[in-house]
User: What shape does this take?
Amino acid sequence: MFADSAKIIIKSGKGGDGHVSFRREKYVPNGGPDGGDGGRGGNLIFQVDEGLNTLGDFRHRRKYAAENGEDGKKRNCHGKNGEDLIVKVPAGTIIRDAKSDKVIADMSGSNTSQIILKGGKGGLGNQHFATSTMQAPKYAQPGQPGIELEVRLELKVIADVGLVGFPNVGKSTLLSRVTNARPKIANYHFTTLNPNLGVVDLDDAGGFVIADIPGLIEGASQGVGLGHAFLKHIERTKVMIHIVDAASVEGRDPIADIYAINRELENYNQDLLKKPQVIAANKIDAIFEESESALPALKKEFESQGIPVFPISAVSGQGIKELLYHVNELLSQTDNAPVIYEQEFFPETTVFQEESYSVTYNEKDNVYVAEGPKIEKMLGYTNIDSEKGFLFFQKFLRDQGILEELEKAGISEGDTVRMYGLEFDYYK
Assistant: This one.
């Protein structure tokens, strides 16, 4: 089954914790600290796989996590770095933050591999904290946590030309005739439920990729039917071919159909109407009397607007060569640069902001309260009951600007500070 969207949870690896240990060798009674550093957590990487064309694999697996870094060891041994995790996706996949719907990455064009979430840094072992006044530090730095994020994957097919039109007008038949694509074809509505891609090869004129966008209906831009699922695949195309039933086999008005589809395109994304358009008046093989033909009315209505009309028969092949060469000429006049969506969401920056802290004054208890994920994590790794541990924690508060924020809040020497159930007096 074709799948062009999926929601998954991704996570980079946590950095390994630094180690606390001391040399314990014969004849070395007072060995110094020799705790090693933790290893780096694995990165979460997205990579384009040219062999994939749907997001179907993500229906069976929901969570993807890189390996955690190994903790440091004694004798200055560095912990092993966590293995990176590579997630393979088809070209044209857009990765969005599920919460804000902002673009994290667009796996298109030259962007075939990108680190989406960086692994946490490994913590430093206690050997790094030895000073002339503190020669036996009993604490080490914890590894940085990995980043966890829910993302939405969205596949927008990469094609130069998009075939649009109401159901049963002959889009799949045309695609099968001009390319090696083999879409399912039958004489009933909505035979095509997935975008089909094919490559058009022209003698002495190169070629291009063409996509059969499933039949649109009125209200598609508001999500009626499978509107959004279909419309998003038109966004990367450079030229659009409107296919209409010039013989009005089902009694439809081809002129009204073109205007109806253009309204849906405009409602979905106004920029879509800026793309060059061509009209393929199909099923001329089914016109037996001139009075039955919609061709004169189509030409009169649209060629005055600069939109050429080509009479074709997707069944017999009549007029198709002229249509394709004209489309190829239009493509040669357009910007060849692929449509790439710029990054709007930066996971590391956002997570860092979410891990900030707050300093407030609790008037009822007459205490200053400092809270935040970083403070909570550091408290979990620090023994503040020991003098050295408390000095280390105080240095952390100073380096992070928390002491400065307390002073801005009006704290004075002797005032009480509360941090996650722990209270102590403030002194400079």
User: Anything to note?
Assistant: The first strand starts at residue 5 and ends at 11.
